[in-house]
Amino acid sequence: MADLASRISKPADTPVDAPVDAPAEEEATNTPAAGEGNGTDDKVDAPAEQEATNTPAAGEGNGTDDKVDGDNSGLIEPAYDVEVKLSDLQADTHSPLYSVSSFEELGLPKAINDGLLAMNFKKPSKIQENALPLMISDPPRNMIAQSQSGTGKTAAFVLSALSRVDFSQSTQPQALLLAPSRELARQIQGVIQTIGQFCDNLIVEAAIPGSISRETGVRGSLVVGTPGTVMDLVRRRQFNVSQLKVLVIDEADNMLDQQGLGEQCLRVKGLLPKDIQILLFSATFPDKVMAFARKFAPNANEIKLRHQELTVKGISQMYMDCPDESQKYDVLCRLYGLMTIGSSVIFVKTRESANEIQRRMEADGHTVSALHGAHEGKTRDALLDDFRSGRSKVLITTNVLARGIDVSSVSMVINYDIPMKGSGDREPDAETYLHRIGRTGRFGRVGVSISFVYDGKSYDALNEIASFYGIDLIQLSTDDWDATEKKVQNVIKSSRARPDYAPNALGN
User: Fold this and answer.
1) Of 147, 355, 358, 467, which has the fewest beta carbons less than 10 angstroms from its beta carbon?
2) Are the C-beta atoms of 412 and 342 separated by less than 8 Å?
3) Shortest CA distance to 285 belongs to which of 244, 257, 246, 326?
């Protein structure tokens, strides 16, 4: 790290084993951009124009935080402590706090259990075994649940929502699930359809721009959508919310961030029945958001990981010290061969950066695609479907895909620009970093993240993020590409990711 150290004024005892790169420009995470609103790509007054819903097929419905096509009883889950806090109303000796070791113990309808068996889910994950008994109990109780990416949060809240639905009233909306982007909403819709594939009369609709017919309005028992479109449909009386029993908010830390999406979620909640069950899920809950979440979902039971265990344990986290900002592109291209071993996601700060990197890489003979909020809905759907199917292996994107999206083949995430927040990008965004790298290494799979640094600001930002999570980042050399490629290949081609990665152990 001598080159970086020589360019940075810092105390001699500053640890050098953890850096991240500052973005050149940012597609707002906290400040909504025109038409993209805080990652929702969904404005408050966005019209719900008629368009055929492009929903994931049953096989694609694996777009969950869970493994769908494998035996999850054999997956390696990180050993972590789960803190469970019962709401004040239930905190007494007669209030049973228990976990389950099998889905059968939950007493779910046979059709739902059959769906789980068809997906080869044989036992609950940690978050599922602790959260599900509380969420499906009667009378319904609110829940705030936090667990790292890839641990089964999606399946947990989908099972809870399905358990509340009366399928004899298939066209009456009974469960509403909100997500920050159309991509995540479509993914959750696919998960519901897959888990509920044996439920008679299951109708799941996506309340995203252009997906709901103006003539019929919302006609599904479960509705997955983005806040702006949902609010627009309710106001136009195309979405009857009178019989809703449960409201789920995924990526709740971003959705309740009181700017943009937070205001929209509050307005949506104000339109719903007062006694609705509220379930909030996220991989991270900063203190200020948790305080707001407790007001949004009063008297909620809480399940969360201890702070020091928030980082994604299954991912080998690395960094590269680029000579300067202009040479980040050259370093990126040198990594292209490693990116296509599986699939890779490159996170940049703005749509303009994504388009420019795509243009340059294609001109240099590389096959890549770019996805961001400036694209039309159908184009975004097609780009993500191509990436899921493997037709596209390298995807350049902004923070619109930083949250929740699960593509099982993703083996590498590159932070081309380090996530920053605040006016003028004054401070590193540790939560977004965690969500970004969580697109790989999901549920015991292999994963590598590589962050680019090039100056004092990017170094300090990455160092602060690493210190926050207690991460020891591994440096990859830009001068010895044989050694760099060997390090990354040894992780990607191993049986599972090694967060305790040591260079000497991998032949360097």
Assistant:
1) 467
2) yes
3) 257
pLDDT digits (tens, 9 = 90+) for 348-397: 999 999 999 999 999 999 999 999 989 988 899 899 999 988 899 999 99
Cis peptide before 139 (omega within 30 of 0): yes
Residue 3, Ramachandran bin (φ over 0: left; ψ between -120 and 50: alpha; else beta): alpha
In angstroms, the CA 129 to CA 469 distance is 26
> How confident is residue 306, by pLDDT bands cut at 50, 70 and 90?
low
| Element containing residue 280 per DSSP (H, E) | strand 277-282
C-alpha neighbours within 13 Å on the C-beta side of residue 329: 14
Dist. CA 190–CA 194, nearest whole Å: 6
Alpha-helix runs per DSSP H in 213-298: 227-235, 252-255, 261-270, 287-296
The architecture that CATH gives domain 2-22+311-506 is: 3-Layer(aba) Sandwich (3.40)
Write out the two tokens for 297: 């979902």
| Two domains, one topology: 2-22+311-506 and 60-71+82-309 | yes
**Superfamily, domain 60-71+82-309:** P-loop containing nucleotide triphosphate hydrolases (3.40.50.300)
Closest CA to 26 of 440, 416, 439, 430: 416
The reported pLDDT for the residue numbered 101 is: 83
Q: Where are the domains of the chain?
A: 2-22+311-506, 60-71+82-309
Average confidence (pLDDT) over 244-253: 95
End-to-end CA distance of the chain: 16
Tens of pLDDT, residue by residue over 98-150, are 567 888 888 899 999 999 988 888 888 888 888 999 999 999 999 999 877 66
Q: How confident is the model at residue 81 (pLDDT cuts 50, 70, 90)?
A: low
Predicted TM-score of the model (pTM):
0.72
Residue with tokens 């201890």: 306
Ramachandran bin of 141, using left for φ above 0, alpha for ψ from -120 to 50, beta for the remaining angles: beta
Chain position carrying tokens 């479509």: 186
